[in-house]
Amino acid sequence: MIRHLVLTSALALSVMLLGCGKKGSSKPTPSAPTRALPGTPVAITVTNKGFEPDHILVEKGVETQLVFTRKTEQTCAKDVVLTIAADNQIRKDLPMNQPVTITATFPVSGELRYACGMDMISGVITVQ
Q1: CA angle, corner 92, sides to 122 and 74, nearest 5?
Q2: Please, are residues 63 and 103 in contact by the beta-carbon 8 Å criterion?
Q3: DSSP assignment, residue 49?
Q4: What pLDDT tens digit does each residue of the chain (128 aa) get?
């Protein structure tokens, strides 16, 4: 009975991790930030590694365009949820190989997240 439970749990975890295209921890440390330049869209690609780049630096109060393009079927990131504030989220589907633009202005300094709908693959936006 216990052996069956352990095997079932291990299988469920493997399916969950493989379904999102990630190995190991689902909350990795973001890479060095990519700076968003005013008036220049930031391209974010969904790959087998997750969101690339997974750390973006933006200016507070400046309109920013984030352009998401999904390049793989081997991930759960078939949509993106961008948190602007505690009570303000933007959710967009990410069709395969089609750019999806989210235009936002970030009013408060700090760190915000963007993530897949399952909240297993994510990135960070640092607002300065």
Answers
A1: 55
A2: yes
A3: T
A4: 455 444 444 444 444 444 554 443 345 566 788 898 888 999 999 999 999 999 999 999 999 999 999 999 999 999 999 988 778 899 999 999 999 999 999 999 999 999 999 999 999 999 99
Structural domains present in the chain:
2-127 (2.60.40.420)
DSSP states of 82-110: EEEETTEEEEEE--BT--EEEEEE--S-E
Pairing of strands 63-70, 42-47: parallel
Name the residue with tokens 């990410």. Answer: 94
Q: Compute the radius of gyration of the chain from its Cα atoms.
A: 16
Q: How many CA atoms lie within 13 A of 38 on its CB side?
A: 7
Q: Is 110 left (phi over 0), alpha (psi -120 to 50) or beta?
A: left
| pTM > 0.85: yes or no | no
The CA distance from 77 to 71, in Å, is 10
Task: State the residue for tokens 């295209």.
Answer: 21
